[in-house]
Amino acid sequence: MGAASKPLVSRRVKVAGLGKYLPERVIASAALEAELGLEPGWVERVTGVRERRRKGPDETQASMGAQAVLAALADAGCSLDDVDLIVCGSGLSQQAIPCTAVLLQQALGLAARGVPCFDVNSTCLSFVHALDVVGDLVARGSYRCAVVVSTEATSVGLNWSEHESAVLFGDGAAAAVLVPTPEGEPSLLFEGCFTTDSRGAALAEVKGCGTAWPPSDPATPREYALFHMQGTRIFRHAMKQSVGFFTEYSTRLPFALEAFAALCPHQASLVAMRLTARACGFRQDQLVENIETHGNCVSASIPMVLHDGVRGGRIRRGDRVLLAGTAAGLSVGALAMVY
Amino acid sequence: MGAASKPLVSRRVKVAGLGKYLPERVIASAALEAELGLEPGWVERVTGVRERRRKGPDETQASMGAQAVLAALADAGCSLDDVDLIVCGSGLSQQAIPCTAVLLQQALGLAARGVPCFDVNSTCLSFVHALDVVGDLVARGSYRCAVVVSTEATSVGLNWSEHESAVLFGDGAAAAVLVPTPEGEPSLLFEGCFTTDSRGAALAEVKGCGTAWPPSDPATPREYALFHMQGTRIFRHAMKQSVGFFTEYSTRLPFALEAFAALCPHQASLVAMRLTARACGFRQDQLVENIETHGNCVSASIPMVLHDGVRGGRIRRGDRVLLAGTAAGLSVGALAMVY
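The joint structure predicted for all components is written out below.
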């Protein structure tokens, strides 16, 4: 990229609050192993996931996202009346039309005030891209209390004949409240950096549900609505992409990678995440992880680990935090902040 | 909104080039009337559409969008090698995963350079939201040649038992190249303003294709993959929303609404567009229209009329231009620029 060696731009925007919502129903890996005829322990050994949540039949991306927003507003000391922007940064959509942010507005009861709504999508990096662009909208003064929501109902698109991916994913939502950084406080959002190599576009995909293979066409196979992934090839591809990306990224930061108090990585799979982080120059004790109990929650994983890092006391105000991950595309991205 | 009476922020970002792609196949309203058993002249009288394009069986949102990008780059005097960001601002997606911008990157052959990709979606206002956020990314110096692409394959989701909407839509794509405004040139992008009222969320929808009614579930009716709209109710709702919105919007502009050389409105339907524009204080001669020959191309309509206004000589460098429209949600939005 042309701007490669320029220092990262920063914005005086603060993540004022974080919220998370997990559906009640816990699906243990042991139960899946029994159901699928897999060797006991296989799921946790291969993916690092011991249990994940699955949404109830009446839960939707909007209802889960709304719960996460309410928790984030409470954390920020804000009320629903303060919200002036709703951005949904999710990999999946609840319906084809309208966008999911509109359905979130409905679930939150914010219709009458006319709060603007739009979606940002880059699959597992959707939260990071959304945070990046909403950071600009808040920094330029257009909004004073924006919510960024990632909410995923992965369980409806699992391909149970493809064990490796079917056992990996979990449902849930997370949200962040963004405000201008108050005078005298240290919070900053640095610019997000991203790279995509579409030679890996078919390595993680749901081929259907869109205009290429419309569900209305009887010729579209039903399994095209299900997730397909080639885990080993993704890992190799993403590892190579990530090492180059973070080598360049570190030259643009105003401090070294080791100065991050926490790395909040996408919870793609436990082994892949740890090996990639190590190869990119991070220490294991910098990583915040929740894949063991949450599974891979697509776009919601990164804000969930940020949330968990803060709630667990590992991330404090003024700490340097890095959100980073890989996504279908294949893409790699990162956004540094002073929390 | 809290920021309601503040003057609009502007950014020194230039729409350096515009491109449009229309599939070859023309579908005349007369042919549809014959096919559907409608009275001759009904379609044009009700919707204003005389003909629209329909994509060929091998065309995709990505292939159409790529053609629009190539045309926009040629117009800007840029090459593919200059592109450093691809943002797809479309209402429809080609697949559920990955995002459509990735598939555009693939179609453009830009994989090896790692050009970042993400999607922005607010249905018919997707281009305007995308332009707004990409404007910030260019203004802050992250990108020097960003493309914003709106590409729609509406023909795959038409509900032929609902004549009013089935005859309205067309396929096609449009793209814009965004660069920092060169020293001494007048081009500006003002901030975009938007409002959503989700009490109208069910008035224009595709209920399926997402996690609420997954196509993999045999219980999901096939027609949920098709577009449904309540035209008269949308018109009334959008009219009321729009008048309030533009009354407020005009107080934030540094000039009067009549100073716009051109209004590039979403081509929702001819009568609705004209009546709404008039009620909001615009003159008929400010409107750029192409619904007669293009139909409603969802997100691609606004950049298409911007393109047509420039190519037809109605919009010249330094002119004040307003992009504005309504979208499923229901949403209303506008973005003013000095072209």
